[in-house]
Amino acid sequence: MAHRRFEVKEHAASYLRSRVPPPPQELITEILGFLENMKERPFDLAVDIGCGSGQGTLLLAPHFTQVIGTDISPAQLEVALANSSTPNIFYRQCPAEELPFADGGPDLVTSMTAAHWFDRPWFLQEADRLLKPRGCLALISYTLDMDLEYGQHSHTLTDICHQSTETPGK
């Protein structure tokens, strides 16, 4: 579980200024296309776990009735709130492994460059509990050099992640 990261407002503001840009819109489009293959629009709820300063959360807002960004850092959430006036975005403070939402709520659960901070087996269990049937979990990262551990599915999940980062034709 991630603790004590970006607790000071100045650190959170610095993170917003110096963080590598959010995922490209093409990646968001790819995720939405995958989700559309699983279920019909409209999409009701997306939850962005470890949202930090909210850059990725903002990308989801046009496609969902409601988007909730969560982060363990109150300072990060304060910066996210200050940089967003989008009416369908809300923020909640909580750890990734203890999400305060009912089972089967969101169509999409994302983590954009934050999953490396999580207790991944615990987080994956929470994401599984949280998602609607036929919902989508999208872990976005600059690198996927981590293993995903979730019971008997650990090897399969890790293989999928590694395959998704391979260059076609190689």
Automatic annotation (TrEMBL):
State the PANTHER family in the record: METHYLTRANSF_11 DOMAIN-CONTAINING PROTEIN (PTHR44942), NOVEL PROTEIN-RELATED (PTHR44942:SF9)
Originating species: Salmo salar
Q: Which residues form the Methyltransferase type domain?
A: 47-138
Q: Which GO terms describe its molecular function?
A: methyltransferase activity
Q: Which domain of life is it from?
A: Eukaryota
Q: Which UniProt keywords apply?
A: Methyltransferase, Transferase
What is the official name of this protein in its record? Methyltransferase DDB_G0268948
Which InterPro entries does the entry mention?
Answer: Diverse_substrate_MTase, Methyltransf_11, SAM-dependent_MTases_sf
UniProt keyword annotation of Methyltransferase present: yes
User: Signal peptide position in this chain?
Assistant: none
Q: Which GO terms describe its biological process?
A: methylation
